[in-house]
From TrEMBL:
GO terms for molecular function: GTP binding; metal ion binding; molybdenum cofactor guanylyltransferase activity. GO terms for cellular component: cytoplasm. This is Molybdenum cofactor guanylyltransferase. Its cofactor is Mg(2+). It comes from Marinobacter mobilis.
Length: 190
């Protein structure tokens, strides 16, 4: 298993007034910096999916990807698809994914997801915390890229539906509740 980390930082951030979420400070550090450092402690390579591939993100990642033109504005599944395609091109078979608006994500959570995936035998694994499923905190084989693209072509942008259709195992991550602190609004960062 060759795993690439994927930081999803390409959203429209409508609830945050359209600013780039990854650059927003959380505890004095840009959210993307915090998560990239956590990924670096767990996996050897990092892809950042961003709408604005620039020097800031280039310094944090081994590779930047943007949504394919046909899928721009279609949400996190488009970033997940571009990342799967890039990871496959790099010779990697698995991605470990996290969105940039959960800056408290820990090495422990990422390692738990990877261990769950290793036990699952190639089936996607997604996090559950206190009965709430987090399909963007998970591990996916890149072989699912075609199925994901089919779902996008059909107009379905639901991440959880993609995970379920892929046979994902929901992993109890209740011991990591602080990791799922979500910063979707500027007020969440205070």
């Amino acid at each position: 298993m060759v795993v690439t980390g994927v930081l999803l930082a390409g959203g429209e951030a409508r609830r945050m007034g359209g600013v780039d979420k990854g650059r927003q400070l959380w505890q004095g550090v840009p959210m993307a910096d915090s998560i990239a450092a956590t990924f670096r402690a767990v996996v050897p390579k990092l892809i950042i999916s961003t709408a604005e591939p620039d020097d800031y993100y280039r310094e944090l990642a081994d590779c930047l990807v943007a949504d394919a033109p046909a899928y721009r504005g279609r949400g996190p599944l488009a970033g997940l698809l571009a990342s799967m395609r890039q990871a496959a091109a790099m010779g990697h078979d698995t991605i470990l994914v996290c969105p940039c608006d959960t800056p408290a994500v820990s090495e422990g959570l990422l390692r738990r997801l990877l261990a769950g995936y290793a036990r699952a035998g190639g089936v996607p694994v997604i996090a559950d915390c206190g009965g709430r499923v987090h399909p963007l905190h998970g591990v996916y084989p890149v072989t699912l890229a075609d199925a994901l693209e089919d779902q996008l072509k059909a107009g379905n942008r639901r991440v959880y539906q993609f995970a379920l259709a892929s046979g994902a195992i929901v992993l109890d991550c209740s011991g990591y509740s602080d990791d799922f602190i979500n910063c979707n609004r500027l007020d969440d960062l205070r």
